């Protein structure tokens, strides 16, 4: 079982942050505690597993920061007495595991080792997805619709008919969409759409 080299702990509760850091250091895990994502962003780590207290929007915010830095770290979310819906939502948002606090060091160690193992399989794909989604977020609604049409193999004329706009207007949206995505060719835009899970 691989050792955890670095645990990035994000929790705005000072007491809990101290308790988790203490419990993990007893298990020989190096912990870098941060109060929030802004604090993490100002001292961006090179590697590690993120243990983040699950609060509204926290995982999305963390993933946005990862996209900006071009890094993806495996995310384990935690909270006290989480509901099944909350756990499912965190996983859908991008966490690869979820734990209920309090947790004993041995159990947390095993969870971290599992997360690292899983991260090796999903890491690069997840980073590509995060980066692609960040690019697609720059598009207007109309540019996304044009991208969807392009990814479906439709011509400018057919996209125009579907969206009730002229082929020339489609062309303008298409050029803007390619520019915002940083895509040189239509095939690059389609690849980005696929990586962002916008199309299958």
TrEMBL record:
Gene3D superfamilies: 3.40.50.2300, Winged helix-like DNA-binding domain superfamily/Winged helix DNA-binding domain
An annotated Gene Ontology molecular function: DNA binding
GO biological processes: phosphorelay signal transduction system; regulation of DNA-templated transcription
Pfam family, any one: GerE
Keyword vocabulary terms for this entry: DNA-binding, Transcription, Transcription regulation
The UniProt record lists the keyword Metal-binding: no
InterPro entries: CheY-like_superfamily, Sig_transdc_resp-reg_C-effctor, Sig_transdc_resp-reg_receiver, Tscrpt_reg_LuxR_C, WH-like_DNA-bd_sf
Domain Response regulatory, first and last residues per copy: 6-116
Keyword field contains DNA-binding: yes
Sequence ranges assigned to domain HTH luxR-type in this UniProt record: 132-197
Protein name, UniProt field: LuxR family transcriptional regulator
């Amino acid at each position: 079982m691989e050792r955890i080299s670095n645990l990035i702990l994000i929790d705005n509760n000072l007491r809990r942050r101290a308790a988790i850091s203490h419990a993990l250091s007893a298990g020989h895990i190096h912990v870098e505690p941060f109060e929030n994502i802004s604090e993490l962003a100002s001292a961006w780590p090179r590697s590690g597993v993120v243990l983040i207290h699950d609060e509204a929007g926290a995982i999305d915010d963390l993933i946005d920061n990862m996209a900006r830095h071009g890094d993806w770290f495996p995310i384990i979310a935690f909270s006290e007495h989480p509901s099944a819906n909350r756990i499912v939502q965190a996983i859908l948002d991008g966490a690869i595991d979820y734990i209920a606090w309090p947790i004993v060091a041995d159990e947390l160690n095993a969870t971290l080792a599992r997360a690292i193992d899983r991260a090796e399989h999903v890491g690069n794909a997840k980073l590509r997805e995060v980066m692609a989604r960040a690019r697609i977020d720059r598009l207007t609604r109309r540019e996304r619709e044009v991208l969807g049409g392009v990814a479906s193999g439709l011509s400018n004329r057919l996209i125009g008919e579907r969206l009730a706009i002229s082929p020339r207007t489609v062309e303008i949206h298409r050029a803007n969409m390619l520019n915002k995505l940083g895509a040189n060719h239509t095939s690059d835009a389609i690849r980005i759409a696929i990586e962002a899970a916008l199309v299958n």
